[in-house]
Amino acid sequence: MGAVPAADRRHIEGGDDRIGDESFPRHRRGLEGTRIPRGGRVSELDPVNVETWSGKDRHDENFPVGSVLIAPRYRDAIHRFYSFARNADDIADSPILTAPDKLFRLGIMENVLLGRAEIGSPSALALRESLARTGVTVRHATDLLLAFRQDATKLRYATIDELYAYCNYSAVPVGRYVLDLHGESHDCYSPSDALCMSLQILNHMQDCAKDLADLDRCYLPQVLLDHFGATVADLRLTAETPALRRVFITLLDRVDRMNHAASELPEILRSHRLRMETSMIHGLAKRLARRLVHNDPGAGRVKLRKKDFVLSALGAAFYLI
Predict the structure, then answer these.
(1) 95, 97, 129, 139: which one has the fewest Cβ atoms less than 10 Å from its Cβ?
(2) b/e per residue, 208-221, with b = 16+ CB within 10 A?
(3) The CA-based dihedral angle spanning residues 18, 23, 24, 30, taken in that order and rounded to the nearest 10 degrees
């Protein structure tokens, strides 16, 4: 992960307009004194909500999020965590907002999450309330914010290690949160980490052309592109080049190893329902990886099909026993 400047953790300077002057009600505690970045005047920001929901929700994801397989008492907490992550991700991935504006908004979300503010991010407030009830550490959510801050400013990845470091903040915390919510052993962290990193890299490959077109962002490690004679610009073509295909296959080989490491997760979980959920997600990850082996993500987003969900669900049914 690239270091986040200390100033970015407090506020983003760049303008003289401040939220909290006499034009704003005094009850809006938490935004007073916060500077609005250039390009984001007070009139352009709703001080009650800095979120910019894209319209996507958990039903639009590749994999189940707090599905009916999860025990009912945990679903609301998982949905709140997802909503927080979705809203932060939408800020980081906005093709309209500037990098300083993104950092500003993510900072407000963190302030609300940590109790330093009461308004500005409804999803952060909802998650804060949930964490207080469940006793799960806030660390998983703040780790996600580190990844989204990086997304706001970092457009290229030089090495595979850089990509893995990013995944340790953008994906790993999700699995660990679910495990902690269920009271599972930390021995489950390692296979969960592997599964979450697999899912993240698969998603990067699915969206590689769109990320470059919309955000000028590329997660494919430059070292792999250089090794096979590919370039970032190849992602702008209508079809993948042979060199780019070799980059994809190399990453998919690593994903296969991650999925293999993750295979023990359903076996060691105590919760039977969580065993089914993780088994289904694991099955979908393997099926999406196979689809990416045989399909070009540059020609269009490679998606899972209904058949993949049915077969993965049947595999998860084994854990009903």
Answers:
(1) 95
(2) bbbbbeebebbbbb
(3) 20
Q: Are 131 and 80 in contact (CB under 8 A)?
A: no
* CA torsion through residues 201, 207, 212, 216, sign: negative
Give the list of residues 6+ apart from residue 202 with CB closer than 8 angstroms, or none.
62, 255, 285, 288, 289, 292
Phi and psi torsions of 2, nearest 5°: -70, 145
Q: Note whether 265 and 195 are within 8 A (CB).
A: yes
Residue where the block lists tokens 């932060």:
88
Q: 289 and 260 in contact (C-beta within 8 Å)? A: no
Q: How far is CA 51 from the centre of its chain?
A: 15
Domains located in the chain, CATH noted: 10-17+38-153 (no CATH), 154-321 (1.10.600.10)
Q: Which residue has the tokens 């694991």?
A: 282
pTM (predicted TM-score): 0.81
Predicted local distance difference test score (pLDDT) of residue 29:
38
Q: Is the pLDDT at 25 greater than 70, yes or no?
A: no
